[in-house]
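Researcher: Good morning. I'm working through a list of sequences from a screen, and I'd like to move beyond sequence-only analysis. For each chain I'm collecting a predicted structure so we can compare shapes side by side. This is the next one on the list. No need for commentary yet; just the structure.
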Amino acid sequence: MVEGRSVAEVAAAHDISRSWLYELLTRYRQGGEGGSRVRSRRPRSSPSKVPAALEDEIVALRKSLAEEGLDAGAHTIHYHLTRRGHATVPSVATIWRALSRRGFVTPQPHKRPRSSWRRFQAELPNECWQADTTHWALADGSDVEVLNVVDDHSRLLIASRAFGTTKTADVVETFHQAVDDHGLPASMLTDNGAIFTAEARHGRCAMENELARLGVAYKHSRPYHPQTCGKVERFHQTLKRWLAKQPRPATLAELQAQLDHFGAYYNKVRPHRALGRCTPAEAFAARTKAAPKLVPVTAEGHHRVRRDRIDTGGRVTLRYRSKLHHIGIGRAHA
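Model: Good morning. Structure tokens for this chain:
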């Protein structure tokens, strides 16, 4: 406009379209220097935008699930909206964008891709149970243990029991109660804890004898490799996140009541991402159950001989039923 050059000449010199240059000239004539500033490309209206009431419901679901210590991701919120019977439910990506827009999504550093992990899953329910213990604290600060058993195929919570200190007899009792409810598994997978195996002591514990008697295969993870029992380890995390939002129990009975409540919700209500958003109970009931295949073996009454060293003070330490006993022999007989 200052030099009196033609639109075609200036458009060719700056490699822009003539229509865009005409648009800039119109803006300059209407608003001066401010008219040529970069403007937002946001549309004036968006017919497909999530209604404000539905977005508020998404946020309310996020808050309520998070306050209860439950999974509050976009997939879970989509599942709950579908169960509520909405005519149109936003996609998971739309729900995620709504949560991000409201400030509920925290950016995370780049994680190791899931495709890099070697994953395994039993083909049938009861084909493999995973068992492990984890720790929790009561209201007075005393430490207790929670024994969890999870079905490898369906992620069904087979058992969840609280003990002051878990012993081998407690593991056997919990196993039989679970068998009464869900049937015998074909195999068990645990770590190398003393309540699960006595291989390090060159013997067999009560759990190993019981599984051999029933024909159930018994497998153990590699030492210091919790990923082998990853499903029950992951359940520990889910359970503890929920327990952290509950009042601290004063007794084991109160903790057991909380475990029973969460177990019912986890099995029958909570959708599981690894199961295509089915509940563990639905996945467990959907297929034929596996059964033990090994020939039952009855252990002999005396199956090993111990050789223990007596210390200089005349004492010997023995482990019996997962408890240490210090027996004084006396210096004269050491």
